[in-house]
Amino acid sequence: MYQCTVTVIRRGLIGGIYSYLVVPEGRSFQYHATKTIFDVSFFIIISTIGLNIIFGIIVDTFSELRDAKWQADQDMRSSCFICSKGSHDFARCKGGFEKHVKSEHNLWSYLFYILYLEEKSRNEFTTIERYVWKLYQKKRTDYFPLYTSLTIKQEDEDAQMSAIVTCVSYLVGKRKELDIARQRELEQLRQRQWEARYAQSRRSRAARMHIQTVRAKQLASDVDD
Ligand SMILES: [Zn+2]
């Protein structure tokens, strides 16, 4: 059975089993018909369908590997491996996503840190190193700054500070405008008061002149009498 299987695979897949298993001379047509059905079945089932299935599996496997690699590359380009933040989150930061994954959350720096802990004596661990080592031993990544970035935090604080400065500047400007308007109103009020006093003094002066004129006329008429 084993030899038969090896022979069929060897002769069937390479060279063709049709020419290897020839029909002995003197056989009936029934024998030839049976041999033909066997050859055609072998050709369809093994040579055509079987090999195509194997080739299809190989092609699908390579396709899946290529898709997985493309997906991994896409993830590495579109999000940070350490904090999982998207590249678009760093669009407003100086240096952008490129600087973040190279300077702030460098994947290799985390790997070197773990290698450094593995090489370091356990008795010389600092508190932070002991904490990271314990999590690493438990295969946990809680020490990764998930969805946290000092760059974005600093950027948010700067944006908040900028908003506060803008708001304070607006309030100071508004206060200055109100002070100027108030000063103008006071100047106008003083001007109106001065004009009122000036008009009053003119009327008083005119009244005194009139009284003096009348008195002079009366005095002149008394002298004539
Ligand atoms: Zn990150």
TrEMBL record:
Taxonomic superkingdom: Eukaryota
InterPro entries: Ryanodine_IP3_receptor
Any Gene Ontology biological process: calcium ion transport
Keyword Transmembrane assigned: yes
Coiled-coil annotated spans: none
Keyword flag rRNA processing: no
Swiss-Prot/TrEMBL keywords: Membrane, Transmembrane, Transmembrane helix
Transmembrane regions: 40-59
Gene3D superfamilies attached to this UniProt entry: 1.10.287.70
Protein name, entry field: Ion_trans domain-containing protein
Organism this protein belongs to: Macrostomum lignano
Lineage of origin: Eukaryota, Metazoa, Spiralia, Lophotrochozoa, Platyhelminthes
